[in-house]
Please model this.
Amino acid sequence: MKVILAQISPCLGDVRQNLDRHLHFIEKAAKKKAGLIVFPELSLTGYTLMDMVQEVGLKPAQDATFKPLKILSRKTDIVLGFVEEKEKGVFYNSSAYLSGGRIVHIHRKVFLPTYGLFEEGKFFAQGKNFETFPTRFGRAGLMICRDFLSYGAGYLLFAGGADLIIVTSAAPGRGVSLREEFATSHMWELMGEAISFFSTSFVLYCNRVGFEDGKAFAGGSFVFNPKGKLLVRASSIDEELVSVDLDLEEIGAARKKWPYKRDDKPEIILQALQRIVRKYED
Amino acid sequence: MKISAAFVEKVLCAFIRQELARFSYRRAIVGLSGGLDSSVCAFLAAKAIGPKNVIGMILPYGISFGEDVRDAQSLARRLGLRSHVIDISPMVDAYFSRYPTQDRVRIGNKMARERMSILYDFSAREKALILGTSNKTELLIGYGTIHGDMACAINPLGDLYKTQIKKLAAHLGVPAKILKKKPTAGLWPGQTDEGELGLNYSEIDQILFQLIDERKAKKDVIAAGFDSEAVEKIVNLIKNSEFKRKMPPIAKLSSRTVGHDFLYPYDRNR
Model:
């Protein structure tokens, strides 16, 4: 199965232009016989939207923007990011999985970073769930950027039976050192390696590049296989279509060797969590 | 504090290139003083968009800074930039002949704003965006003239301390003569930043790094061995220059106000 990570730089607030670029890259992916193409977080709108959130919100069930995307998803599965107006006047930072001409799953970002240079909690409603769903390549689960840095969220997708963990991101680079990348780039790969190894799943991470108001989005999109091996990593600065072949047999092979999946104890974790939550409610 | 100059160069060149392109500009303007920051900025711009698209503006006050003018001119020649030399003394003198003063800071600030005014006129004349050269050290301690040398369209250097810019300069191949110069705001002949501040840049930058990047409290920085007077002085400089880093506050009356809750990015629809 060929996967393409579209490490692009969306135009801030211009859905029309971004849609055209999506269609262009999806057609390119189809020509390369890719099964799946993944775009970054908020790929249809850009990231630093602020008050524009209310102007670019889409209702995917009826919005015309999704029509050509649904059509192209008959050939190539698509993961993309957009602002979703789920209820009137309530906006989510969402990602969608499209396949077979329809939207199969929508994930609404749960962890909205609101500190330092991040202001998502000011503009978006908070998603409330991490769910897996069936695809033609196995069960998949979606996370958006900061979601991925919560190992609880990664665990939920693992417990939900994910074979593919797909992370869309708009992560700005922060911190320069003697390394040829931003200090924060390592953080994402660290999680990618850990989650892929301990969940024995593929982890696909698609970050964006480009600048918004001086923030440099740090690219570095990657794929880890279910044994925690890095298969590919994109540049930190440039737009890139990263192509990688996944051997889906590796999921079973990894789980034979490392029975984390077999030995998982969600009911014990649930009970323990309930006890913890009860305690701090007292 | 240590940086990979090669990586920083790549990021900053991409920033200059992309920011110009998104506002449909091909050209950039840099005010060249003959000093370190503006030379680094010119090098980056020349690499990012090609030297023919960079306009170097050399804006001396009379002949008092002859050597700096020659250094700036030789840098522009070396990089292959288009450059203009404009003597700002007639404009500045015309004003101070009516409102005379001996206050060197007032005179220096007026010169910085005269240069700004010319840069912005050339920005319109040449359809070029102004690249700022205020570094992180200056921005934090407020060592710059508001609406003067701090004014620009985009600033590639504002998140690098002076000592980091020196590293970047060496990597880019900025001439040794400029690297070795004592940093000066050019407020008056013989003025040096370190002389005026009473601290050297290496000391200032290390203290700033502890306070700002490492988010350490003043007392912890002093406990770590930094001179308490220097730390105290720097903390006060930061506090007292907040107004230079912000747009002026607008008295809020309505339900949606510019600067308060009318919130759009700089790069809106770009």
Observations:
- The interface with chain B takes residues 9, 11-14, 48-52, 173, 176-181, 210-214, 216, 236-238 of chain A (CB under 8 Å).
- DSSP finds eight helices and 14 strands in chain A.
- The radius of gyration of chain A is 18 Å.
